[in-house]
Amino acid sequence: MDDKQNANPTILSLSDLPSRRRESNVKRRDDGATGLFDDLIPQYSYLNDPFEQPLSSSDSDDGSVEDIDEQEVYDLISSISDPEHPLSLGSLAVVNLPDIHIQPPSSPHSSISTVLVEITPTITHCSLATVIGLGVRVRLEQALPPRFRVDVRIKKGTHSTDEAVNKQLGDKERVAAALENGTLMGVLRKMLSTCE
Amino acid sequence: MASPPSTDDASTPRHASAPSHTIRALATLTPPSNSRTWQTAPHPSSPIVATACSDRTVRVYSLTSFTLLHSITGGHKRSVRSVSWKPHVRGQDVLATGSFDASAGIWRRQQNRLETEITGEGGDDEEEEDEYQFACILDGHESEIKSLNWSPSGQYLATCSRDKSVWLWEELEEDNFETVAVLQEHDGDVKCVAWHPEEDLLVSASYDDTVRLYREDADDWVQVSCITGHKKTVWWAEFEGSALSKKDFRAQRDKLAEEQTRHMEELEKSGPRLATCSDDCTVRIWRRKARERGHGTNDGIPSIIRSSAIDEDWYEEAVLPQRHERAVYSVSWSQRTGMIVSAGSDGKIIVYKEKWKTPSPGKLDATKVNGDGNTTVPDVDAPLTEWVVVAELFSAHDVFEVNHVVWADRADKGKREGEEVILSTGDDGEVRVWVLDEQQEVAP
């Protein structure tokens, strides 16, 4: 396991993650601050305990027009596992509540809403950024009603090849083909196994 | 992909000109697929269509009864992305299928029920018929085939792939295909290939945001033009039909101004134009700069490298009124009326029509409306024609994306003379059939 792209990621503690219950207590990670030894803190496996998961809306895909907000989207994707660490994307601050934007339909004739998620890879050259982005897109396309269009992008300036990754993630045909790739699907399934 | 919608909002609720037509639902082809459908190809002469499905099958439907006639299964290992009927085949139907499994398949079926399919009568009693038989497989691409298309003569089949290449195949004898060319000009996935209706001129559209044209030069297929202008992935390219000047806005020849007559002559020299659509939410029209005769060939320079005389200059003639808010996946040019239909991720279907600009193009209407500065229009005159939206339909496939849209001849009992339908293919697995009705003028 020495070949991890980022062997020492910064990790947020569970109490710092945004949730519906403690909204006033949402604390943003201060980039560039300490965090150097954070990975020494042991036993994060409890994050993956199914009983600890915030109740997400896997029961809400009946297509009814009930409002879905950013927190709900966050809950759906923050529990996805990082492909190389036994940690969630939420605790690694790869997905952050302020970087989730929901746009309502642009016209009364339309029922299409848009969810934009900007992800922050743990290091600027992480080649797994595409896989992480794909996991987020797949998770939301499976869990949200089909009236949502899901756009996943790398947060500007956080990744060396963000434009190229964004273009891939935005390409429906490439995403569809990727999901027919057994190896890649295996990785995604593992990442998503900590959801629900 | 949509840019942050807040900036788009201002431009969407534009009702400058009320649509003159309505798009009315005629039928849904039944039974639909229960997973995403990608593209639907109308047969060149029979009232049937083939639909490429993500469940690895192709479904052949009747346009007279709107029901499923055949399911072509057991061939591809992954999604079928593209289908194309071979034109000018007698006695049988020949279908090419392109798949995410990187292969293309050729399928044949004897036409033993010619009479029912041609007349459009008795479409209901299609019973046990001969199935489509797998004929051969075309291997060569390294990754997913995205599109394939037969040339108008049926001589060539073009395929394109995520491996950035375009392959040209020629059928030497039945089921014996030879690779004529492998064109590797693009820097990204090639999304679509299409043919000029009158010349062996091939176009490809790509993930690298460009559109490229190729033709044969001394036994070698070479790129003759590279079109830039779209800012994102170009999803589809399609040429205008042949001899449209007798059918579209040019059909009315009375009382034309001098410039209008000249415009029509120039357009005739350019030949059929090209329509493309993109992730940048636009649909654009490209036109070939008419070649000046006898120029460039006899300039005394011996040609060791290929002659540049074969190069073509295609420039942007128009950007259609922008009504799409997300990627435009497909655009189709009516062979009968010259109207254009487009559809995409926002679930809308938009129909556009070209017309002479009013008020009459007399004196310098200097405002240049087409283009956005990328391509220079060689003629300094302001455009004489404009494209207007004649119909706009929201949620054509409920909340789902529309992957493909195409015109086809209407074939059911309610058809009017020379009428066309629009076929849309969606993520919901459905192919829907629409008619375009002219709206009655309602007195206020």
TrEMBL record, chain A:
SUPFAM superfamilies: Fe-S cluster assembly (FSCA) domain-like
The keyword Nucleotide-binding belongs to this UniProt entry's keyword annotation: no
Protein's name in the database: MIP18 family-like domain-containing protein
Region of interest called Disordered, as start-end residue ranges on this chain: 1-37
GO terms (BP aspect): chromosome segregation; protein maturation
Family statement: Belongs to the MIP18 family.
Keywords of this entry: Chromosome partition
UniProtKB/TrEMBL annotation, chain B:
Region (Disordered): 1-21
WD repeats: 73-117, 138-170, 183-214, 321-353
Classification via InterPro entries: CIAO1/Cia1 (IPR028608), WD40/YVTN_repeat-like_dom_sf (IPR015943), WD40_repeat_dom_sf (IPR036322), WD40_rpt (IPR001680)
Protein name: Probable cytosolic iron-sulfur protein assembly protein 1
A biological process term (GO) from this entry: iron-sulfur cluster assembly
SUPFAM superfamilies to which the protein is assigned, alphabetical: WD40 repeat-like
Keyword Repeat: yes
Gene name per UniProt: CIA1
Key word Repeat present: yes
PROSITE patterns tied to this protein: WD_REPEATS_2, WD_REPEATS_REGION
Family: Belongs to the WD repeat CIA1 family.
Native source organism of the sequence: Didymosphaeria variabile
Record function comment: Essential component of the cytosolic iron-sulfur (Fe/S) protein assembly machinery. Required for the maturation of extramitochondrial Fe/S proteins.
Signal sequence extent: none
Compositionally biased residues, Polar residues: 1-10
Keywords: Repeat, WD repeat
GO CC annotation terms, alphabetical: cytosolic [4Fe-4S] assembly targeting complex
Record-linked HAMAP family: ciao1 (MF_03037)
